[in-house]
Amino acid sequence: MFLQAVGFLFLVALGPVLAASQGIESYENYYNEIHVDDDQAEAKTRNALQSPLQRWPGNKIYYRISEDYSEQEVANVRTAMASFGEQTCVQFEEFEGSPPGGKRYVTFKKSPNMCGTRVGYQPLSFGSHDVLLNERCLTMPAVIQHETLHLMGLFHEQSRPDRDEYVVIDYDNIPRKYWSQFMAQDRTTTFNVPYDYESVMHYSKNAFAKDPSKPTIRALINGEAVEREMGQVRGPSEGDWAKIRIMYKC
Prior knowledge:
The chain is of the alpha/beta class. The chain has a single domain, classed as 3-Layer(aba) Sandwich (Collagenase (Catalytic Domain)), CATH 3.40.390. It is about 20% helix and about 15% strand. It contains 6 helices and 9 strands. The strands form 2 sheets. The chain has a 6-stranded mixed beta sheet. The chain has a 3-stranded antiparallel beta sheet with strand order 7-8-9, with no helix packed on it. Keywords: Disulfide bond, Hydrolase, Metal-binding, Metalloprotease, Protease, Signal, Zinc. One of its GO terms (molecular function) is zinc ion binding. Its cofactor is Zn(2+). Its EC number is 3.4.24.-.
């Protein structure tokens, strides 16, 4: 069976414990007032959608930007979107006014307190696929790119089905409510792209740590668990781009 992911991935600031980490996960929150249920929370941890029905059709995705964005916020979104056309065969084309007839499209909206989007193309939905961004997220093109990779069908690197060959998770240092974000899944594909510690979709070594001085994720190097940096908020890695190129037959 193909995975049907219909939930939102939400991103908000999580307070002093997570603020110590500068990874992408410092924006993420699966336990918020939207009440994401357990099945949806589990779905968000998977690495890449297998079903071609949940990939955007064609190689052009239309988008528009909310009128309440500042000039700099608009510029940051456009910079983030342009990178996809530079690195892959998928073009994001901005439009104003009425949407292209019959086409699903993306709308970047401003949110007072959270960032998020649905994961993958929603074949049974119509109209706008919304991306919510707060002012903090809008300052960082890499976070906008992270959200765009989610809407295109990517999940988190440390939840790949083969991740136990590359990382060790210290669940004792993670609050139980976040365990689902670290569990490996076996119903998706990695597209045979090598495991990527530098992915913008990878959590940092101290992600969700009860004690931020100790890593929650260690890398397996020659069979030995070692501490190393992983994840970043500079932008998609070559591995991230490679998955999109394969998914969209570039």
